[in-house]
Design goal:
Shape of chain A: globular
Number of helices of chain A: 10
Order of helices and strands of chain B: EEEEHEEEHHHEHEHEEHEHEEHEH
Distance between the termini of chain A: 23 Å
Radius of gyration of chain B: 23 Å
Strand order of the largest sheet of chain B: 7-8-9-4-10-11
Number of strands of chain A: 0
Radius of gyration of chain A: 20 Å
Largest sheet of chain A: none
Structural class of chain A: mainly alpha
Order of helices and strands of chain A: HHHHHHHHHH
Oligomer: heterodimer
Chain lengths: 269, 300
């Protein structure tokens, strides 16, 4: 039943303009961000006053930058996917014949897949832009120093970074039964409150256990491994392994709370 | 032996302090069209929501096709089709896509069946058009197609003729009858009493969350109180006199006429003549579901 529900959610998503706008926006953002680096620094890069970064920079930087744009779009998709089931009352079709657990997991899994697709897309776009400029503008393209295993692993852990947010989105939308409130709270948290709170993480207290910058920094730290670089981890932040375990725990807690609520809701006509 | 298709036992739902459904016991049998009536807010949709595993009962049980149904146990509902309230669909998809989407949850539904069901509800020509561009009546037909696509044994239809023109309403009534003739059991919830009277074999009337009448339509109509229309020169005087006549339950003014329930026409005639009021016309009203409905819902 899970696979049937997943296929239904997939069809509903890919037939939406929003999905394709999301992919286009993420690709364009990375394209612009990467090409801006090469065009804005043309004189310095051509003269050698600015060291030409390796191809690993194109891959890692694209993924790092992608979080700026991917997260708000994932929040929008998550809120609309869950909220429309309430406003259009389509959940009655699925929940008459399928357990609520399967329905919720199908939606969550699809959001995870979308997040992964965005990571892979940005990796490809960033790589192509870097390849193009290095090959045709600067004539210095080289694959040396690219850790391909780390490159392959990167979209996976970058997706993991988004999981707590995706689960939180589902929880908020189920709690409010509203696309609008899901969107408002989700965007408000990820784009405003979290940024305000991120300074608190450096106080060294229990606040270190909030995901906030921990997740982003851990992801960035890991992305350096694409270029075989080792960057020192700030003392106030948690180790990446701990952060990813904490992210998984947060995800499970949010999902469990969402399911608990969803299973207790009355969803009449 | 006739199988029970739906049975609720002391089904109760309380929202906060409001008892929306109060110990409802209804039984619907295989192959029949069962009417579910009640004024607005009587608890019909909540009862249907519980039947479809969408609303948690506070107390009581629901058996559908011999299996217990709860929001966490909906196995029996695989053979049930439903149109609950306004039709629910994905607006940016076509009628065909919406029906196909729902059909994925049921095995054995192929493209041929989707085409058949869209033809059955009269949407063949507009099957590829986005549902958001449909009229209310056409949306209703999409909802019906979604309810019927997997050849359910039991169909629950909540106001299925909403938004349809008279010809469309007649088509749907014929469709409901043909479903029953082909062995599909139907529960029809409607506020159109004439529609229910034409289509249903048995009915249950819900009022303030309680079942106030249940049985075969003919049996209930035969057992209903006599209703007599009396035309008199001065209705106000006649109404006052008739209200004091033993057995009269209700006297309602309707222009120059009075509608009297509870006693037969000879007693009314005698009473009026005794009081020197000569009626210009006196007719026995044919028992109708409307009269029965008003009777049981006002009494309770």
């Amino acid at each position: 039943m899970f696979l049937k529900l997943f296929s239904i959610e997939w069809t509903r998503l890919v037939r939406r303009t929003l999905f394709w706008v999301t992919l286009a926006a993420c690709a364009l953002f990375i394209f612009y961000s990467q090409q801006h680096f090469y065009t804005a620094n043309f004189t310095e890069l051509a003269s050698g006053s600015l060291k030409m970064p390796g191809f690993s920079f194109d891959l890692a930087n694209s993924l790092d930058q992608s979080m700026l744009i991917a997260l708000p779009f994932l929040v929008i998709i998550g809120a609309i996917m869950m909220g429309n089931d309430y406003s259009q009352r389509t959940n009655q079709h699925w929940l008459m014949r399928a357990p609520r657990l399967s329905s919720l997991l199908a939606k969550f899994s699809l959001l995870v897949l979308v997040s992964f697709i965005i990571q892979v897309l940005t990796l490809i776009v960033g790589g192509l832009v870097g390849w193009y400029f290095k090959t045709y503008t600067y004539h210095v393209f080289s694959l040396a120093n690219v850790n391909w295993l780390a490159t392959l692993a990167a979209p996976f852990y970058m997706t993991l970074v988004t999981l707590p947010y995706l689960a939180l989105m589902l929880l908020v939308t189920i709690l409010t039964r509203s696309t609008f409130f899901g969107l408002a709270i989700g965007l408000g948290y990820t784009q405003f409150i979290e940024i305000l709170m991120s300074g608190l993480i450096y106080t060294g207290s229990w606040l270190r256990w909030l995901l906030l910058d921990n997740l982003n920094f851990s992801a960035t730290w890991l992305l350096n491994s694409i270029g075989n670089k080792i960057v020192e981890l700030p003392a106030n932040l948690l180790a990446p392994a701990t952060v990813f375990i904490a992210a998984a725990v947060y995800t499970l807690i949010f999902l469990a709370a969402a399911l608990w609520l969803y299973q207790r809701q009355d969803l009449g006509g | 032996m006739i199988n029970i298709i739906l049975q609720t036992t002391n089904l109760t739902k309380i929202f906060g302090k409001h008892k929306a459904v109060d110990a409802v016991n209804i039984t619907a049998y295989e192959g029949e069209v069962f009417g579910f009536l009640g004024p607005n807010g009587a608890g019909k949709t909540t009862t249907l929501g519980m039947t479809l595993g969408l609303v948690h009962p506070t107390a009581g049980e629901i058996n559908v096709l011999g299996e217990l149904v709860t929001p966490n146990h909906t196995h029996a509902l695989k053979d049930v089709g439903a149109l609950l309230g306004a039709p629910a669909f994905v607006p940016y998809l076509s009628a065909w896509d919406n029906v196909e989407l729902v059909s994925r949850l049921s095995p054995g539904v192929d493209r041929k069946r989707i085409g058949e069901v869209l033809e059955l509800v009269g949407l063949t020509d507009t099957a590829r058009k986005k549902v958001s561009k449909f009229s209310t009546g056409m949306k209703q037909r999409v909802g019906l197609a979604m309810a019927l696509v997997h050849r359910p044994r039991f169909v629950i239809l909540d106001e299925p003729t909403n938004g349809l023109d008279p010809a469309g309403m007649r088509e749907i009534r014929q469709l409901i009858r043909s479903l029953a003739e082909n062995g599909t059991s139907v529960l029809l919830s409607s506020h159109l009493l004439n529609e229910v009277q034409q289509v249903c074999d048995r009915i249950a009337v819900l009022n303030k969350g309680r079942v106030v009448a249940q049985g075969r339509v003919n049996d209930l109509l035969n057992g209903s109180r006599p209703t007599v229309r009396v035309s008199v020169p001065v209705p106000a005087d006649a109404a006052r006199i008739l209200q004091s006549l033993p057995g009269v339950e209700n006297v309602q003014a309707d222009g120059n006429s009075l509608i009297v329930t509870g006693v037969e026409s000879p007693a009314i005639m005698a009473c009026l003549l005794q009081n020197n009021i000569i009626p210009t016309e006196i007719t026995n009203q044919k028992s109708s579901l409307e009269a029965l409905f008003l009777d049981v819902t006002s009494t309770n």
